[in-house]
Specification:
Layout: H1 14-21, E1 27-31, E2 39-42, E3 47-51, H2 56-72, H3 79-97, H4 100-109, H5 114-121, H6 125-140
Parallel strand pairs: 1-3
Antiparallel strand pairs: 2-3
């Protein structure tokens, strides 16, 4: 199965991504999730649950992350294959949410300091870290 192409752009807010998700054949809802669980995708039910207790920035990143899992038809992120799916999902999430030129500009302005860059880009520090790993890999294989 070919992955579903997501039309998420870096400047979309959580609300805009949530409304976009309503046009897809996946159900998105929010609930209180266990500690350290920001979002869950259930492939059998084609349902995404986002933790309602998070900030909008965290919800934006978590929803995009779970939509990437949905787009690829991922069902379980266990074992070696699960680790690969998770790494792919994290990098694709970062690529969707962080615009390349803005990242480069902010890298110079903030001298690489993660927190202010993440705030400016409306992403979590983890998504910023994932983006940096993606850039390093691309440079390594260029």
């Amino acid at each position: 199965m070919e992955p579903y192409s997501l039309a998420i752009t870096p400047h979309m807010t959580y609300g805009q991504i949530r409304r976009y998700a309503e046009s897809l054949p996946v159900t998105v809802c929010s609930a209180q999730l266990p500690e350290n669980v920001q979002g869950v995708f259930n492939g059998m039910l084609s349902t995404i649950i986002v933790d309602r207790a998070m900030t909008y920035t965290m919800k934006r990143c978590a929803l995009t992350h779970e939509l990437v899992h949905w787009a690829h038809g991922d069902d379980a992120c266990n074992g070696i294959m699960g680790a690969r799916m998770e790494q792919r999902t994290r990098r694709e999430t970062a690529a969707l949410l962080i615009p390349r030129i803005e990242y480069a500009t902010l890298e110079n302005i903030y001298e690489g300091e993660a927190y202010p860059m993440a705030v400016e880009l409306n992403v979590t520090e983890q998504v910023l870290k994932d983006y940096r790993e993606l850039i390093l890999d691309r440079r390594q294989y260029a």
